[in-house]
Write a structure and sequence with these properties.
This protein has 85 residues and is α/β, with parallel strands linked by helices. It has three helices and three strands; from the N terminus they run βαβαβα. It has a single domain, classed as Rossmann fold (3-Layer(aba) Sandwich), CATH 3.40.50.
């Protein structure tokens, strides 16, 4: 049986929130980038049990992955959904 993925259904953008910015979120983001998705991180909806790890990854997302990853605030996300909803 042929399985279909999100891209087969027209999904091109992943909005990511969650905990463990430097572990689970990182793995999700890197996989999504590798698969060619536009990745939007909601920066005020991320956290980690390690403040140092969280801060380091947020810096990495901003400075190293700025071409692949877009950082927005939750209020901006709500406005975008309202515009396109």
């Amino acid at each position: 049986m042929l399985q279909t993925g999100p891209e087969d259904k027209g999904v091109r953008t992943l909005v990511v929130t969650g905990s463990e910015t430097d572990v689970c979120v990182l793995a999700t983001v890197l996989d999504a980038v590798d698969l060619g998705f536009r990745v939007v991180l909601v920066e005020d909806a991320l956290c980690s049990s390690s403040d140092a790890g969280h801060d380091a990854l947020m810096t990495l997302y901003r400075n190293r992955f700025s071409e692949q990853i877009e950082l927005i605030k939750s209020q901006e996300l709500a406005m975008l959904w309202a515009e396109h909803g």
